[in-house]
Amino acid sequence: MMPSRTHPPVPLAWTVWGLGALLYLIGFFQRVAPAVMTDRLMDEFSLGAAELGNLSAFYFYSYVAMQIPTGILADRWGPRRLLSSGAAIAAVGSAFFAFSPNLWWANAGRLLIGASVAVAFVSMLKLATRWFAPRQFALVSGIALFCGVVGGVIAGVPLRLAIESWGWRPVMGVSSILCAGLSLAIWLGVRDDPEERGYRSHAPTPAATARQGSITHDICEVLSYRNIWILLITPIGIAGAVLTFAGLWGVPYLRQVHGLATHHAAGITSLLLVAWAIGGPLFGSLSERLGRRRPLYVVTTLAALLGWLLIIYLPLPMWLLTLVLLLTGLMSGNLIIGFAFAKESVPARLMGTASGICNMGPLLGGMLLQPAVGWLLDRHWLGLSEGAVRIYDLAAYRAGFGLMAACITLSLCLIPFAKETYGQEAT
Predict the structure, then answer these.
(1) In a domain, 394, yes or no
(2) Could you read off the pLDDT of 298-317 as tens digits, one per residue?
(3) Residue 243 burial by CB count (10 A; 0-12/13-18/19+): exposed, middle or buried?
(4) Is residue 46, in this structure, part of any structural domain at all?
(5) Is the whole model's pTM more than 0.85, yes or no?
(6) What's 190's domain CATH number?
(7) More confidently predicted of 397 and 133
(8) Where are the beta strands (DSSP E) in 299-403?
(9) Residue 5 burial (CB count, 10 A)
(10) 426 phi and psi, to 5 degrees?
(11) What is the pLDDT at residue 426?
């Protein structure tokens, strides 16, 4: 069918993109799920904080390693095949984790899950450039984060209640079945470009044009842009702090230091993720209106740093601690500015590769900070435990979380050196 002169209908565009978003939702669910089962995992596998941090980080090890290949494959093979195969492999990895007889199999399951869902975000960005107008890119990217955080919220109180009712293994087994069903739905419903459905594409270059450069050349060319290095490193602290607190250590911190029940603690960390999700489209849209990326990125990063310093070092009452966590999560949603920033820093033909490289930043934060905070907790452990579950005091958590603040300080120092794009695509 010859492409028509009209762009795809909005409901169709959101449906195609939304199927990819579901895999990102599941991936985010799996990313932060260990936070509400730290006690179960520590007890079942006899883990200390460093080992638990490493188990959770196995997701990030493979996720980060897949980002550059994912960006290149998104440019060369298209999102449909990547998303469908990713969901299928996620089903296998979830099954490995759910029925793991020992820590080795649990690590293997987390490794497979991270590698498989790693294709989701970059593929969603690629679909967005073809199914939506360029002016909507930052907004759609922010909504992508919101969809992921919905998965994070499901991995909070609802997941904890399900685990207490049926156990963590059956619940993780159900997630494997859902991934398998999503793989089929993506294959049937997603198309790489509106032209495959008879509509006009929003892509800045013809979608069917084959990539001519070698993979090595693509990577080297993308890395030749100063902005890419800055926008890769910056989210390590900003997003890494959120993923470390909400994704693993926030719940035990609120339980052990502030005496909250697990449900209450999980609810607060879920609110942090919700605020993070709201900040994404908010700051993405605001940066579009301002027509500038760098100033807003600097201001919101500074606000996030101040928020974490208050949380870590001041004895705040619970209502104020919760409020500061919400505001800090909101400010941390500024990483969406970085994605739009990166997209505009390279030619359109390299967008997938650039997105893959820069998407490594947030996940590098989780990969490095989760086990590093766990290692510091173990270093400051005073020997208290409840069964096989170690108990850490306020000084231990301050030592661990102080590392998060240090990383955000580095991020804040780097952003001013990025070249402003003024919201314009590179040529």
Answers:
(1) yes
(2) 999 999 999 999 999 999 99
(3) buried
(4) yes
(5) no
(6) 1.20.1250.20
(7) 397
(8) 385-386, 389-390
(9) 6
(10) -70, 155
(11) 64
Q: Which residue range forms the structural domain that includes residue 52?
A: 10-194+213-417
The Cβ of residue 89 has, within 10 Å, a number of other Cβ atoms equal to 18
- pLDDT above 70 for 204: no
Instruction: State the sign of the Cα–Cα–Cα–Cα dihedral 346, 351, 353, 359.
Output: positive
**β-pair partners for 386:** 389
Asked whether the CA dihedral 220, 225, 229, 235 is positive or negative, the reply is negative
Q: How far is it, in rounded angstroms, from Cα 141 to Cα 362?
A: 14
How many domains, the chain?
A: 1
Q: Which of 156-165, 212-221, 377-386 has the lowest mean pLDDT?
A: 212-221
Instruction: Determine the pLDDT at residue 5.
Output: 64
For residue range 101-128, list pLDDT tens digits in order.
Answer: 999 999 999 999 999 998 888 888 888 8
Q: What are the helix (H) ranges across 38-78?
A: 38-45, 49-76
Distance between CA atoms of 211 and 85, rounded to whole angstroms? 22
φ/ψ of residue 98, rounded to 5: -65, -35
Confidence class for position 224, pLDDT limits 50, 70, 90:
confident
C-alpha span between 122 and 356 (Å, rounded): 6
Q: Is residue 306 part of a domain?
A: yes
Residues 6+ apart with CB under 8 A from 371: 50, 53, 54, 56, 57
One-letter amino acid identity for 35? A
The two beta strands, 389-390 and 385-386, are antiparallel
**Residue with token string 């990483």:** 335
Beta bridge partners of 390: 385
Distance CA(28)–CA(145), nearest Å, equals: 9
Q: What is the C-alpha radius of gyration for the chain, rounded to an integer number of angstroms?
A: 21
pLDDT at 56 over 60: yes
Find the angle CA(50)-CA(55)-CA(59) to the nearest 5 degrees. 130
Give CA–CA dist 58/115, Å, rounded: 10
